[in-house]
Write a structure and sequence with these properties.
- The complex is a heterodimer of chains A (about 325) and B (about 325).
- With about 325 residues, chain A is an alpha/beta fold.
- Chain A is about 35% helix and about 20% strand.
- The longest helix of chain B has 26 residues.
- Chain B is built from eleven helices and eight strands.
- Chain B is α/β, with parallel strands linked by helices.
- Classes of the chains: A alpha/beta (about 325), B alpha/beta (about 325).
Chain lengths: ~325, ~325
């Protein structure tokens, strides 16, 4: 296996480039994806390589260009639509929820919508209350769409391929804080499975269930706890809809303790859903109540110390695991 | 234009009119449920515009779309069965009155979010433009949708990219119960649309010949690579917004005034004057339409219900 050093951003770019080369039905559109090179430089250089027909700068009109992506998908294309941040995607909510998610069912199975919508999510960059939220769990409420969150270089490289092959709408949430993440990536990675959660660190004493930017936080917490002789299993959900119950329940049944770590707010969240599924399906295997580590219920504040205080931190995860195993917490 | 062609236009408008009138009765008989929005009075618009399109050209419509579906050639029995919620309906019964779809006939619904279908039409046009196809995608929407951001975003995008889209604005002067002048600072919609940089003009939507003529001109411009066109088709619905609507907001005199301009009566009168309507022609059409309608109703009545075990089908594609 030969590996290359790359970043999350470069892995995403390689995935888009690959898709544009491989399939002439694929095109990229969104705000500043072309001349600017992508708001977060993900699509840098793609306009020059593929031209303005396939790398399309759009006006600032999320509803129209997301809807146009859905229409183009109905018309046989394989659009990749980029929205700058999940907060901006609120302007396209009608198209995602009322059209992309419903057309197949409403038409009695006649109309597929093979669209991929990418957007950044999450905090950590002092971007305050309109650029920092984690609303992917909210989208996961909607039947008819698939929600994936790449948290590793391999998933950043591979999930797009799989998403483009899916006949149904797939939303890819890219944690903005991960773009500069650097590491080694197997050069041969092309497509990855998006049906299953992944055990990123096996362990015996407790299961930490997370996804996205808090995967790193959770793995660091697990390392810290290992020093104290506590062996934590860390699961990366990867896909928030449909949830891979089997992997979660299998782990919890072995460890008897579950801690859910989610950058979203606690109330009505994906962490609440996971907690409910565990108590519904593995209640008698639990040795402790399910713990949750979520963002504080506040619009994201600007100053670094307040943003840090609002977000799940390593110490919070460590404390939750300790509470779960009854170790003083 | 031949007498035969005018007779076809008349037949199409009568099919829609009689279908809608029967739907109102079937709604009262509780055969049709949910919301039911009738197109009575606006038949010239669907008939004239769709008559100018080729059968393979996509249509995106609204929740008041029975007329568009029938004019496109979606079989009446499939439309009626959809009203009944049966599996032989054109959306397998999953959509109902507001969500008629027929992929084979390039009929993309059936969108009940006001303005929500317009971006889809832009996308269908984009797909064609990227593949070098010269099909025209037509999007029907109302004066209510003209107030929505999605319309303005979409018309800008289509003009910017010179996409082959016909924006067919059915201005029936009311957004549900609110009159145009109570919701728009400038009620000349064609004038406002033109500011986006595309050809736009108003059309008498009660005159099927004027509508067809305008649609032909629009389609010619679009097919020649002239980019999108906007038509403001000025029309009126003779019945209430939906079966739930007590119609308290319109003056009876106003409704009566528009009924004097009934598009079917107008065409009949014109054809009689021109000697194009023979003895018994109208009666023959009425009989054919009545027969078609009776057959459609029979098919709908006989249509099977979706088994409840299939409830969650079509949420995601079925993988083989």
């Amino acid at each position: 296996m030969s590996t290359i050093e790359t970043t999350y951003r470069e892995a995403m770019r390689a995935a888009i480039r690959d898709a544009l080369i491989r399939d002439d039905r694929v095109f990229l559109m969104g705000e500043d994806v072309g001349r600017y090179g992508g708001c977060f430089a993900v699509s840098l250089g793609l306009l020059e390589e593929f031209g303005s027909d396939r790398v399309r700068d759009t006006p600032l009109s999320e509803s129209a260009f997301v809807g146009a992506g859905i229409g183009a998908a109905l018309g046989g294309m394989r659009p990749i639509v980029e929205i700058m941040t999940v907060n901006f995607s609120m302007l396209a909510l009608d198209q995602v929820v009322n059209n992309a998610a419903t057309l197949l069912h409403m038409s009695g199975g006649q109309l597929n919508v093979p669209i991929v919508i990418r957007m950044t999510t999450g905090a950590g960059r002092q971007l305050a209350a309109q650029h920092s939220h984690s609303l992917e769990g909210w989208y996961a409420h909607i039947p008819g769409i698939r929600i994936v969150v790449p948290a590793t270089l391999e998933d950043a490289r591979g999930m797009l391929w799989t998403a483009l092959a899916d006949p149904d709408p797939v939303l890819i949430f890219e944690p903005g804080a991960l773009y500069p993440m650097k590491g080694q990536l197997d050069e041969s990675v092309r497509e990855v499975d998006i049906d299953r959660a992944a055990i990123r660190r096996p362990g015996r004493d407790a299961t930490v269930i997370t996804y996205g930017a808090t995967l790193g936080t959770s793995l660091a917490a697990a390392d810290a706890l290992a020093g104290e002789g506590i062996d934590v299993e860390v699961i990366d959900l990867r896909t928030l809809r449909p949830l891979d119950d089997a992997t979660l329940l299998d782990s919890v049944t072995r460890t008897h303790r579950a801690v859910v770590v989610d950058e979203g707010w606690r109330t009505g969240s994906i962490s609440a859903e996971i907690s409910a599924r565990i108590t519904e399906q593995a209640f008698y295997d639990l040795d402790a109540p399910v713990e949750r580590v979520c963002s504080a219920e506040v619009p994201m504040p600007y100053p670094k110390h307040l943003e840090d205080a609002a977000l799940p931190q390593q110490v919070d995860v460590v404390a939750a695991v300790r509470r779960s195993i009854g170790d003083g917490g | 234009m031949s007498a035969k062609h005018r007779l076809e236009l008349l037949r199409q408008m009568l099919r829609i009119r009689r279908f809608e009138e029967r739907c109102a009765e079937l709604y009262s008989a509780a055969k049709i449920r949910g919301f039911l929005h009738l197109y009575v009075g606006e038949e010239a618009v669907a008939t004239g515009v769709i008559g100018a399109l080729r059968p393979d050209e996509p249509i995106v419509s609204t929740y008041r779309e029975h007329g568009h579906a029938l004019a496109r050639g979606v079989p009446m029995d499939a439309v009626m069965a959809e009203m009944y919620g049966r599996t032989n309906g054109c959306s397998r019964g999953r959509g109902g009155s507001m969500h008629l779809f027929d992929a084979d006939r390039h009929f993309y619904g059936g969108n009940a979010i006001v303005g929500g279908g317009i971006p889809l039409a832009v996308g269908l046009g984009l797909a064609d433009a990227m593949r070098g196809s010269h099909r025209v995608t037509t999007c029907f929407f109302g004066d209510g949708a003209f107030a929505e951001g999605e319309f303005h975003e979409s018309v800008n995008l289509a003009t910017l990219w010179q996409l082959p889209v016909l924006f067919a604005c059915e201005n029936n002067h009311y957004a549900m119960g609110t009159a145009l002048a109570r919701t728009h600072g400038q009620t000349d919609l064609a004038l406002r649309a033109a500011s986006y940089g595309l050809p736009a003009w108003p059309v008498d939507g009660m005159d099927v010949l004027a509508v067809e003529d305008a649609a032909h001109r629009a389609v010619e411009i679009i097919r020649a690579g002239g980019g999108p066109v906007f038509l403001e088709l000025r029309t009126y619905r003779f019945r209430a917004h939906s079966m739930y609507d007590p119609d308290r907001y319109r003056d009876k005199a106003e409704i009566e005034e528009w009924k004097q301009r009934d598009p079917i009566d107008a065409l009949v009168a014109r054809m009689r004057t021109d000697g194009e309507l023979g003895d018994g022609d109208l009666e023959a059409i009425e009989r054919e339409v009545a027969d078609e309608l009776a057959r459609a109703e029979e098919a709908a009545e006989a249509g099977p219900w979706e088994p409840v075990t299939d409830l969650t089908r079509f949420v995601y594609s079925e993988r083989s």
